[in-house]
Design brief:
Elements lengths: L1 H22 L2 E7 L13 E3 L3 E3 L1 E9 L9 E4 L9 E2 L4 E2 L8 E2 L8 E8 L2 E6 L11 E7 L1
Parallel strand pairs: 1-4, 3-11
Antiparallel strand pairs: 1-2, 4-9, 5-8, 5-10, 6-7, 10-11
The protein binds copper (II) ion.
Length: about 150
């Protein structure tokens, strides 16, 4: 009896493993932080648990850890080498349409968690927060998708 259960469990694990290899998305954990999370935090870090994933479906698990500020995460193709994302100095924001924004969480209240699912081709990307001023305060990360 016990042996049969073990075999069944092994078969199930094998089945799940195969499905996982073929279809599973890669999960990327993103934490949006500022000095309200911890006074020792300088600027506004976007903390990403991995900055490179294989091409295909990617689930960005985004949490706004701030105690006070709205943050968000937007995905842009990286601009060509030597160029910056188009920026609106008056609004202190990246121009989302001109920068060819691919996806976003929308505004996230303090403490909120959201998952953004997107299929990405190989290439270089930028993850940014586009609340006014946050991009220039360092709330962004490079991100690479490999073949
Ligand atoms: Cu922000």
């Amino acid at each position: 009896m016990r042996r049969n259960l073990t075999i069944a469990a092994a078969a199930m694990a094998l089945a799940l493993g195969c499905a996982g290899t073929a279809f599973a998305a890669t999960t990327v954990t993103v934490k949006l932080e500022d000095s309200t999370v911890d006074p020792s935090i300088k600027g506004m870090p976007m903390v990403v648990d991995r900055t490179s994933v294989p091409a295909g479906e990617v689930d960005f698990d985004v949490t706004n850890l701030s105690k006070a500020l709205v943050h968000e995460m937007l995905i842009f193709p990286a601009p060509p080498a030597g160029q910056a994302l188009p920026y609106d100095d008056a609004a202190q924001k990246v121009k989302e349409a001109e920068g060819h924004k691919l996806e976003e969480t929308d505004d996230m209240a303090p403490g909120l968690h959201k998952t953004v699912k997107i299929t990405l081709e190989p290439g270089d990307y930028l993850l940014i927060c586009n609340q006014p001023g946050h991009y220039k305060m360092g709330m962004w990360s490079k991100f690479t998708v490999t073949k």
